[in-house]
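Dear Dr. H.,

I hope your travels went smoothly. While you were away I took the liberty of generating a structure for the chain from your last submission, since the lab meeting agenda had it listed for discussion. I wanted you to have the full record in hand beforehand rather than looking at slides cold. The sequence, exactly as received, is reproduced here:
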Amino acid sequence: MDFREALSRELLARCREQGLTLSQLAEKSDVPLSTLKNIIAGQSRNPGILTLGALCRGLNITLADFISRAEAQALPGTRTETPQYNRESAEKE
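The corresponding predicted structure, in token form, is as follows:
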């Protein structure tokens, strides 16, 4: 798994843990929903540190913790249980 996919999975996992929809996270973090969906879908090639920081603040986690967990998922041989992004369900949010 590459790092972008790991970021996406970590965002989805954190939202699920906190019972947040993507729309709610976008509102809490003041990040446009379209930007968040692009990150989740892997269409954002290089999400900016300010955007990731805002999302982390919306999730009440540190950027360092978020990055380290995503980095651990991206390591070869690491397997996660986080569900894949589902565009249809995200568009309903």
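Two observations you may find useful: The radius of gyration is 12 Å. The domain at 3-91 is CATH 1.10.260.40 (434 Repressor (Amino-terminal Domain)).

With kind regards,
E. W.
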